[in-house]
Specification:
- With about 70 residues, the protein is α+β, with helices and mostly antiparallel strands.
- The protein has one domain (about 20-70).
- About 40% of the residues lie in helices and about 25% in strands.
- It contains 3 helices and 5 strands; from the N terminus they run βββααββα.
- The strands form 2 sheets. Strands 3-5-4 form a 3-stranded antiparallel β-sheet. The protein has a two-stranded antiparallel sheet with strand order 1-2.
- Helix 1 (about 25-30) packs across helix 2 (about 35-45).
- It is globular.
- Pfam families: HTH_17.
- This is DNA binding domain-containing protein, excisionase family.
- GO terms for molecular function: DNA binding.
- InterPro entries: DNA-bd_dom_put_sf, HTH_17, SinI_DNA-bd.
């Protein structure tokens, strides 16, 4: 269903609404790699991550960008 804001119709909600934070183990499971591999990518600054409340989290949009950049 389209959203109308100030007489402007948007077919999709803003990208931020589709964004969510993932834990290292969830990213590892999704990519079928070990969690230490994900941590190495973070350490080597290949994958963006933030420490939130004592745990490392990866934004789903950053994960998508990482996958696109490293998809051969």
């Amino acid at each position: 269903m389209p959203v109308t804001i100030n007489k402007t119709t948007l077919s999709d909600p803003p990208a931020a609404e589709h964004d969510h934070w993932m834990r290292v183990d969830a990213v590892a499971t999704e990519l079928c790699v070990h969690h230490t591999t994900v941590r190495r990518w973070i350490r080597d600054r290949k994958l963006k991550a933030k420490k939130i409340g004592g745990t490392v989290r990866i934004r789903s949009l950053d994960l998508d960008a990482f996958i696109e950049a490293n998809d051969a």
